[in-house]
Amino acid sequence: MRCFVTVGTTKFDSLINKIMTEPCLEILRQRGVSYLVLQSGAGIIHIGDNKRNFNGIQIEQYCYKDDIKFDMEAADFIIGHAGAGTCLEALKLRKPLIVVVNEDLMGNHQLELAERLADEGHIFYTNVTNLLNLLQTVNFSELKPFVPCDMHRLAKFIDKCT
């Protein structure tokens, strides 16, 4: 199983740091993850060679790519920041999505967007502190598919939030 973690273009080191902890990696391994791709954005986190494999999880990390769609398509589930682009793309691809709200950016629309999408049953959301608890209990089969005809409605909602 593949997991893709994305922070977009911002700095969100606390998410990458949490993902790279032994307890988090162990939970991912127990969930069946064997390949983990980290897109670390503007942060200063770079995993060392000794972290390229953790108990059977192959780990790949990069800061940026021109297009992350391939990584999103290849993933069985995505953990990402609450940026509108990340959320829209994951929903269009019908990928299970755990949104981790960057509390350092709380002056923006990210929390409102995450709450709304979660209220409608399309994503799960949390903060960095509670990520491990959610990963242990999340049931992706509870998510409702996002119907493509709702894209216009979502775009209007995002416009209202920004």
From TrEMBL:
Annotated localization: Endoplasmic reticulum
GO terms under biological process: dolichol-linked oligosaccharide biosynthetic process
Keywords for the protein's UniProt record, in alphabetical order: Endoplasmic reticulum, Glycosyltransferase, Transferase
InterPro entries: Alg13-like (IPR039042), Glyco_trans_28_C (IPR007235)
Molecular-function GO terms, alphabetical: N-acetylglucosaminyldiphosphodolichol N-acetylglucosaminyltransferase activity
Main localization of the protein described in the UniProt heading: endoplasmic reticulum
Entry's EC annotation: 2.4.1.141
GO CC term, one of those recorded: endoplasmic reticulum
Domain Glycosyl transferase family 28 C-terminal: 3-145
Annotated family: Belongs to the glycosyltransferase 28 family.
Protein name as it appears in the record: UDP-N-acetylglucosamine transferase subunit ALG13
